[in-house]
User: Fold this.
Amino acid sequence: MAVDEISVGGLGARVKRVEDDRFIRGKGNYTDDFKLPGMLHMEILRSPYAHARIVSVDTTKAWAIPGVHLVLTGELMAQRNLAWMPTLSYDTQAVLATDKVRFQGQEVAAVVADDPYIAKDACEAIEVVYDPLPAIVNPSQSLAEGAPLIRDDKDGQTDNICYRWEVGDRAMTDRVFERAERVVKLDCFYPRSHPSPIECCGSIADFNPATGKLTIYMTTQAPHIIRTAVALVAELPEHMIRIIAPDIGGGFGNKVPVYPGYVISTLASILVGRPVKWIEDKTGNLISTGFARDMYFHGELAIDHRGKIQGLRIDVDTDNGAFFSDAQPTKFKVGLLHSAFACYDIPYGHLTSQGHYTNKAPGGVAYRCSFRVTEAMFFQERLIAAAAQDIGMDPAEFRRINFVREFPWRTTYGMLLDSGDYDKCLTLALEKLGYPELRRQQAEARKSGRYIGIGISTMTEPLGAGNSREFDIIGIKMFDSAELRVHPSGKAVLKIGSKTQGQGHETTFAQIVTHELGIPSTDILVHHGDTDNTPFGMGTYASRSTPTAGAATSMASRKVRAKARKLAAHLLEVAEDDLDWELGRFYVRDAPQRGATIQECALAAYTNMPDGLEPGLENHAYYDPPNMTWPFAAYLCAVEIDPETGVWEVLKFVAVDDCGVRINPMIVEGQIMGGLAEAFAMSNMQFITFDSSGNCIGANYMDYLLPTAWETPNWELHEVVTPCPHHPIGAKGIGECACVGGPAAFVNAVVDAISHLGVRNIDMPVFSGRVWEAITQQRDVAGYPPLPGH
Ligand code: CDP
Assistant:
């Protein structure tokens, strides 16, 4: 008899997350929990200025403090050729500043001491003389005549542009716009935000002078890439480097880049010959580590009299901060921004983008999104909403007549969609929201001065980079891996190249093995995050784990099953071809009662294998996805605004997600709820900005708010399933969909509520003050200074 898939924790089972047991009991092991014998502590001195020349750095007093073992400056780093490091986007970044500081919070010096308090005191004893320079805090200033050159360290750099990029058919798009019946335009700004994981970044570097082996415990989402990067930067042999990413208290893209603190603590450990721990504080994390978004959009749609979109033009300015240091696929300078409008059938489109250096901390991190997809989908859904408003068409209907309906489909910017049923998702969402009735209530409410609004956001998002033909980071192709070993007793260990940061991989990846082999998920242990103990993988970000490492897990399991078939044939004394498989068991086709379970095959692999068959039951797979997966979502939100104050509240929120086959529906729902909470916070709670001197405003949790259960509305979740045609189990990514598609639903709802007053746009965060301004002034509220030429 086949085992019952749900009862053994296979595909579709709502298995409770196995990792939560240790987290709830306070038994998680985060980087800061490790205490190594002889360990010293490191603190970093950061720049108070956003832009200043360094005149001198005097460390005399710091060295004199008892308990100080090492004081590092840019000059000392430079002597070892480590003052600068390459970034994951082919730029360079200062490890410790030598010539200038280029953002507030930049690393200037570091102290290693017996404890963190001595190290902090010693940092304060370092005397740095700065010569302040004018700070550039937005692209408008970076383009201005006579703007100071931020990256004067780079040969040949004569302006503050860090890249220009374009995609699409410019000539044909221009022709479409020349003949367009109607052109609708929108300018809007997606402000800076910060992933702000609860656990800050940190590392413990442990160089063993006797063996020459370097072990680094660190908060990284991508341990294997870090190992390669450390090998290149520090010129150490890769096999003598071990990166251990233990439990991670949230990543959200913030823990992908290589931060100076990692490099400095590594050099410090090599110099002092003892383990060196560096743990960032919250303000350090908020002001200096990877920010996200900060994009200025200018876009237009050419629309015919039926409401069919004929052309799309987008121009984007991105504020990248002082160093272009987030990870991007080499070919795509603005990540997957060109996934914008993928779910809409648009014959011609063209997209241009320029990246700007500014005196802000590095930006552009893929905060819970597939590179720049969040920004792409936000602008897409804001422009779609504005267009429907301008042409006087119902926004649901406008989407419907423009949805892609045939698959495979090449999008206007050249991406390949392989599956989806967009209409079905939107129809279900409209039905669950009670759309026609709400529209009636909205019209009725307006008569008595009440403002009710309905926001729609529909999007498909590419998740699971590669394929390796198109996707690499610093030349390393994007694929992922899994290694499965079944022990004689039928219990198994799965090692994966991805790295969980709270998404539940230890649970869901075991469920994939269960689905393939019938081994109960409770009999499978999942290892991740240790480069000495897992196969090479590109790590976890961009919701790529299930599409890539998840697929590799299936493929490795299937290889194991193929070997188990040989063992079953031997045990049952029949030919392999005479066997059929049902979950957990091979059986003789003509005599189904005669069978061998996967556990019996495992035992035979070590105790009773046929002559000529290699012992053991294990295999691995490196999975290079043929395409990304394309989940789809329809997020619908109803709000009511208080006309007197601009305060708005969510009346109802409906989310319909299609992430293909769901491995663990409960975990998927958790991912959607978490993503929506972040989207809600971004839309109206979070503001992390910079004053004209480049001081970061919002550098603590008093000012930069995290949503709690108190503020967060209720979410009503529904599902549609269109399996991914190329993923072995039909799964698509889901981790970030709600964070990507959610913000536009809230903003669209607020704007819709007051659209009859002539309001078309309010930039995020949609604070009550901005809404009140829009109501009282009866106009749009922009959140940024205008850029030249727009
Ligand atoms: O890469 P990341 O883990 O952040 O994102 P993901 O691959 O979309 O997965 C997030 C969590 O949802 C993981 O635990 C997945 O295995 C699970 N998941 C699922 O159960 N079913 C899916 N179709 C997709 C993800």
Q: What stands out?
A: The mean pLDDT is 96. The chain has 19 helices and 34 strands. The domain at 20-27+480-623 is CATH 3.30.365.10 (Aldehyde Oxidoreductase; domain 4).
